[in-house]
Specification:
Layout: H1 2-7, H2 10-19, E1 24-33, E2 43-47, E3 52-54, H3 62-75, E4 79-84, H4 90-93, E5 100-107
Antiparallel strand pairs: 1-2, 1-5, 2-3, 4-5
Protein name: XdhC family protein
Organism: Georhizobium profundi
InterPro entries: MoCofactor_Util/Proc (IPR052698), XdhC_CoxI (IPR003777)
């Protein structure tokens, strides 16, 4: 049972991808406010091909985070992302349910 839980852990998946030689970025929820659907500490892992596992928002901003993570993988520099109803990107990326989320994206390794 524990091995099945660990196999679904995005950080365990990221380690496996890195061992396979893939470039990997990790996105971590570092702050939420209001009705953000994922708690602080939630992870989304992205490889250099755009494959991803996990979630930082229940689908609201994953596409935007994956796009930014691809840039982080290419450039190597981490980024802090913020999405929310007060942000002009809220309607474009779909976080119209309310709240705000800050996500830190960094390249693994």
């Amino acid at each position: 049972m524990l091995s099945a839980v660990l196999a679904d852990d995005p950080l365990v998946i990221a380690e496996g991808w890195a061992k396979e030689g893939r470039s990997v970025a990790v996105a971590t929820v570092v702050e939420t406010w209001g009705s953000a659907p994922r708690p602080v500490g939630s992870h989304l892992v992205i490889d250099g091909e755009g494959n991803f596992e996990g979630s930082v928002s229940g689908g609201c901003v994953e596409g935007a985070v994956v796009s930014e993570a691809m840039d982080v993988i290419a450039a190597g520099a981490p980024r802090m992302l913020e999405f929310g109803v007060a942000d002009e990107t809220a309607w474009r990326v779909g976080l119209s349910c309310g709240g705000r989320i800050r996500v830190y994206v960094e390249k693994l390794g």
